[in-house]
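Field reference: sequence -> structure
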Amino acid sequence: MKSVMWFLFALLLGIVLGFGASIYVVQSEAGNVLVRKTEVVQDLERRLQGMEQQRDALGRQLEDVVGRAGRMEAAFTELEKKFRAMADERGAGAPTPTVPPATLPPTP
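Structure field:
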């Protein structure tokens, strides 16, 4: 009975120490030395860096497009104000021509 208890204690201690050592190796830089970064991992890291650079470039392009859209909106608003002012001047100075009812296309 005593030998069974010692065996179970040693087994439990081995499991706990093995788990702790595994966590240490995975979390530390020693894991890279033991695992030796494979070419697949290095290729994936290069591709990830390339994608991050593309994402940053697209973010800058998006900001540029948003800025241009804002300027275009402001220019359109200004143009609309000028058009309304011209329409008001024309309405006050001369009557607006109307289309006679005979020239309107028939409604279906």
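Note: Residues 39-88 form one domain.
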